[in-house]
Amino acid sequence: MYTTTTAMLTRDQLEALRTWAKHYGRNWKASLRQAWMDGDYDVFQRDDVSAYLQQVRNTFGPSWLVRFVLPKDGGFCVFDQATDATAAEQSGKVL
Q: What is the CA radius of gyration of the chain?
């Protein structure tokens, strides 16, 4: 689980991120950032997914999403620097 000094990503929040990413594909982060900006969660508007995604935004903030990586194996990573993502993926460092 991703933790900070003040917050932790819940399983429900992580599953909402996975659901969003699966639906929107390669550009899921861009579509999620837009949803966070305008409050329009499209097909998930009346779903728990939108509530959990809004919780993620309110807890971690939009800049957190830049460092967040959702690998295909079901784990996830959060990096201090966006440039570290490529190196960590290549070395197989996932949480």
A: 13
